[in-house]
Design goal:
By secondary structure, the protein is mainly α. It contains six helices and two strands, in the order H-H-H-H-H-E-E-H. It has a two-stranded antiparallel ribbon with strand order 1-2. The chain is globular, with a radius of gyration of 18 Å.
């Protein structure tokens, strides 16, 4: 198993996942709900930044590896799933939204694995639609973890509850759209290999 700094960042992201969940189980005498929200949002943002940096550094330093390519999306999906489960538990998003996002990730991961096995992985490579969905999701989740007005000075504040909810709905819509897009790309192979008329 190769080990380098980009892979270290990926492992760090995995280590941070229990912390996002764990802060909500701390006794109230240790941390108020507002401080828990802030801590969970901050941890998620740090974890999300490691996602960007590990890929960037792996390419820049030519340290890409098959293991890193496997571990990176696993870490991403674990991080998003854990955060969505927390948000459902806190009643900040509906379970249906979490199910759509997590279900799509499982379905597309399985589809990509199958397409790779038959030598057609390029047909379902990540595209701009999937990247935009991920961007909406990665902005919405820390907003919903923070869940309050975010001051910017001069009396200006962003209500992260409203913006986070809108963005997670956009992410859910793009989740379905991108899943249908990938399924359409893979359909010729599915029809041919699955014996579908």
């Amino acid at each position: 198993m190769p080990f380098n700094f980009p892979i270290f960042l990926t492992w760090l992201r995995i280590v941070l996942i229990p912390l996002i969940v764990g802060v909500f189980y701390l006794p109230s005498m240790m941390m108020t709900l507002q401080h828990r929200d802030m801590a969970a949002a901050a941890i998620f943002i740090v974890a999300a930044l490691t996602d960007w940096f590990d890929g960037y550094l792996a390419r820049k330093w030519n340290q890409t590896s098959a293991f890193g390519a496997f571990l990176d999306p696993v870490a991403d999906k674990l991080m998003v799933t854990a955060a969505l489960l927390v948000l459902v538990q806190l009643s900040r998003i509906d379970a249906a939204i979490a199910l759509v996002i997590v279900g799509r990730e499982i379905a597309i991961s399985a589809l990509r694995e199958w397409m790779a096995q038959i030598g057609a992985s390029k047909s379902v490579a990540v595209n701009s639609l999937g990247k935009f969905k991920t961007a909406c999701q990665m902005v919405a989740i820390p907003m919903l973890l923070f869940y309050g007005p975010l001051p910017f000075g001069g009396g200006i504040a962003i209500d992260t509850r409203v913006w986070g909810l809108w963005l997670i709905y956009v992410a859910a819509f793009l989740t379905i759209w991108s899943m249908l897009y990938y399924m359409k790309l893979a359909w010729p192979q599915i029809r041919e290999r699955g014996g579908i008329a």
